[in-house]
Amino acid sequence: MRTGVWQHSEVVSHWDRDENAAAYQRFCEDFAYYPSGSAALVRAAAIATGEKVADLGCGTGVTTRALVSRLGDSGALWAVDPAAAMLRVAQAAKWPQQVRFVLGDIATLVAQVPPESLDVIVCASAVWLPPNRHALLRKVAQALRPGGRFALSIPSEFIGESTHLLDESATRFLTTLVQVRQELALAPPLPPQLPIEPPSLGAWRESLSSVGFARIEVGVHPYVMTHAEWAAHLCLPVVLDGLLPLARESQRQQFAQQLLARLDPIAPAARPWHILVAWRG
Ligand SMILES: C[S@@+](CC[C@H](N)C(=O)[O-])C[C@H]1O[C@@H](n2cnc3c(N)ncnc32)[C@H](O)[C@@H]1O
User: Using alpha carbons only, what angle is made at residue 49 by residues 44 and 50, rounded to the nearest 5 degrees?
Assistant: First the structure.
């Protein structure tokens, strides 16, 4: 149970729980939200056989698997994650010998590979988690060769593109969520104490340009999920930590039951991903 506001240093510990890693793996087996985002990102990154690639924030290995299918048996792939519990799930699967797992973050990776040696760094649905965007991008640029690519996927609302949340179906889902939370007298998420870097596409472009990325391509992966999938996503332990910061386990369970009971499970809602590919100058 949380008792305070999330600090950056806490972020990894919320991921780093066996219960969370198992739930994330199950969610990715049952629903396509993360796997389809990863597949779209790997396509956009245009990975070629033989390239040296890093998968930053590899989690349970969903994106790593999509990358391996593009690399074949050649090239090299570093799969990096600071949450040991997530990495353990990934490592339990069978991998070709060119995949190396690294417990850590971008700084750990940079310490393990020669400067300017990687062709591509992919970061699927994790790029907003490191504490300092500029520091992250500087290190990414340091590890990539000139002309190398940084490819990232991010939920569109995290980059300031939120109009899909205003459509009728999404509004219905979000209204139900707030009602259930209020009826159970559960506290809403707390505002962050630390300054948040601006969540806009323009700000991302500026940050990327400022560390030497010369060309940036932006695409949208137009994912549509059912309300049942959306509810299952919200009920991942790491998401509930943020959504119901002070709730006990029994209250979390009540919340999940009530939410599912009230929703139309097959109602569709747009939940797009933004996909950015940036080329180092
Ligand atoms: C939503 S999961 C994405 C996992 C995987 N890329 C996928 O597509 O399924 C986010 C991952 O980012 C990791 N993470 C947390 N903080 C991080 C950081 N500072 N740097 C890199 N990854 C981080 C978490 O441990 C978690 O495994």
Answer: 120
Q: For strand 76-81 and strand 224-226, is the pairing parallel, antiparallel, or unpaired?
A: unpaired
Task: Please tell me the distance between residue 51's alpha carbon and the centre of ligand 1 in angstroms.
Answer: 22
Answer whether residue 231 is part of any domain.
no
Is residue 253 assigned to a domain? Answer: no
Do residues 113 and 78 lie in contact, with contact meaning Cβ atoms separated by under 8 Å? yes
CATH of the domain at 144: 3.40.50.150
The whole-angstrom separation of Cα 161 and Cα 182 is: 27
Query: If you measure from the C-alpha of residue 105 to the centroid of ligand 1, how many angstroms do you get, rounded to a whole number?
Result: 9
∠ CA 265-271-272, nearest 5°, is 155
Which of 15, 31, 42, 103 maximizes ligand 1 atoms within 8 Å of its Cβ, making it the mutation to test the pocket?
15
pLDDT at 193 over 90: no
Report the alpha-carbon distance of residue 259 to residue 262 in Å, rounded.
5
The phi and psi torsions of 229 (rounded to 5 degrees) equal: -65, -40
**pLDDT tens per residue, range 2-40:** 444 445 557 899 999 999 999 999 999 999 999 999 999
Report the predicted TM-score, pTM, of the whole model to 2 decimal places.
0.94
Report how many domains make up the chain.
1
Phi first, then psi: give them for residue 276, nearest 5 degrees: -115, 135
pLDDT digit string, tens, across residues 208-267: 999 999 999 999 999 999 999 999 999 999 999 988 988 899 999 999 999 999 999 999
State which residues form the domain around 77. Answer: 8-162+196-226+271-280
Residues in the chain: 281
